[in-house]
Amino acid sequence: MDKYEKVKKIGEGSFGKAILVKSKEDGRPYVIKEIGISGMPSKERQESRKEVAVLAKMSHPNIVQYKESFEEAGSLYIVMDYCEGGDLFKKINSQKGVLFSEEQILDWFVQICLALKHVHDRKILHRDIKSQNIFLTKDGTIQLGDFGIARVLNSTVELARTCIGTPYYLSPEICENKPYNNKSDIWALGCVLYEMCTLKHAFEAGNMKNLVLKIIRGSYPPVSVHYSHELRSLLAQLFKRNPRERPSVSSILDKSFLSCRIERFLTPQLIAQEFRHTFLHKQPKIAKRPAPGFIPLTPAQKITKPATKYGVPLTVRKVSDAARKSAERKPAVKHKPVSSLLTVMMGCSEKKRMELIEKERKQREQMFLLKAEQMKRYEKEKINRINQAREQGWKHVLSSSGGVVK
């Protein structure tokens, strides 16, 4: 810390303090994130150092720029650029109830997505997306910060206890004590988008137990119809309870009402670099060059050629002229007429057989519909039982863990 002069503490988050400092070398302001690692096991300390090394290689217009890191007196210090515009949380609160325009929301949201895409493309999870970790530069550019640190906390209860205030951004899978994944970042992204649209948190409750129940049920007040259908539909996709049903950040940016804004924030060179793998995936497959002497068959030929269709050589014998003339000279064989009674009997038996077939078909159809209805009822009952057990389990876990909101 000898190279920096402390100005003031500007925040205290889940994993340490944020201190505004001034460099003694160039006089520029920086933010130092102080993380206490002395109490961590050796493996987790090493993991934190690895994440800082990854952070050092990150370079993107919408990500807070890393400067350096060092360890001192049992703490890890990460030095980052200072965003003079403050964080998005403070910006939202300063609105005093006046909603942002959709134009402003989409511009900010696209920049957040561009930053998250850069992170996810490198197989890194942010783990702590929230409006307090999204910053504005002096010229109004959005920058994402404070990611990677949350890996040192694994269990839901530990995460909930460590969070200062209510953990509004927890996803249903985290509430169910499942591993964090990239779709958990997408859920948190949805929470931020909702916050920008309503100036409120999507999930609010008086205590941790009720908050978790709301998140698991996915119940939140609707966004104003003042905003477009595309925006409200996107929000519903981000809040899918099943992580697999949530879109990836790349598919979000692929939506036409968002993709048209990307060129406002990235140079053509950077767009080509960031979306290179997407372009490569969309390239048409190159057809294989046919072998010499190969004669391609048209679809009609492939169908009409028996040898091609059935895989066996089928030949048709030609009848000689003499044999054909001989066959023409032979008189036609006269068959004995079948009695009219036999004809009627055959007709009746055929009619009876068709009636039986139709009856069996209807019975099978009714059985199939009955089974389908039973399966549908069984699945509905099963889902209800799972939801009830899940809610009861969480009530027990949270009451025993003392998860009360400050």
> Strand arrangement, largest sheet?
1-2-3-5-4
Helix content: 40-55%
Q: For the CA atoms, what is the radius of gyration?
A: 35 Å
**What name is given to the CATH topology of the domain at 84-281?**
Transferase(Phosphotransferase), domain 1
- Give the topology string: H per helix, E per strand: EEEHEEHHEEHHHHHHHHHHHHH
* Coarse structural class: alpha+beta
**Mean of residue pLDDT values:** 79
Spans of at least 5 consecutive residues whose pLDDT stays below 50 are 150-165, 279-288, 295-316, 338-342
Amount of beta strand: 5-15%
CATH C-level of the domain at 84-281: Mainly Alpha
Sheet with most strands: 5 strands, antiparallel
- The name of the CATH architecture of the domain at 84-281 is Orthogonal Bundle
Number of helices: 16
Please tally the β strands and state the result: 7
- The CATH homologous superfamily of the domain at 84-281 is called Transferase(Phosphotransferase) domain 1
